[in-house]
Amino acid sequence: MRLFLLLYISIFSIIACAKKTVIVPEEVVTMNENNNPMEGTFVLNQDSQAVVTAVDFTGSEDTYNFSVTLKSPDTGCDQYADWWEVLDKEGNLIYRRILAHSHVNEQPFTRSGGPVAIKENTFVYIRGHMNELGYGSLVFGGTIKDGFESIELPVEFATELAETEPLPTNCAF
Predict the structure, then answer these.
(1) Average pLDDT for residues 16-26, to the nearest whole number?
(2) Which of 13, 73, 86, 134 has its CA at 20 to 30 Å from residue 166's CA atom?
(3) What confidence category does residue 7 fall into, taking pLDDT thresholds of 50, 70 and 90?
(4) Residue 2 domain flag
């Protein structure tokens, strides 16, 4: 009995100390063992980011065209999705599609771009960017060969690309 109790306490302690990620409709939060948000993690409301909701493609190797659907909290030129981009696993920019205006009354919206120079088995991320809010964490990832699916990418991943050309020069409306 004493051995059983010791084993039970050990297993409970291990489970209680484990980190877990909780995804609820409005937030993505990493929780600690006390079920509190971990220090240094982001509480990212899905309504404050450009969320990639669909990815389609056409073309052939090294000349693919992508059609990317974004849902974003555009309010006008003061806050809008200003681009979507394709990057590799290491965070290198492969392609960026600049969005020339806000899409306040068109949500979600789809914009195409290319050519994107990748092989059919190259794993890439497709993510959106908000002009004032930065990158979102709800992106698509995958390959041309195997397809793309919605995944969560750390919001801090390759944020230095926000300063990499090409960049928007203005917002039409």
Answers:
(1) 33
(2) 73
(3) very low
(4) yes
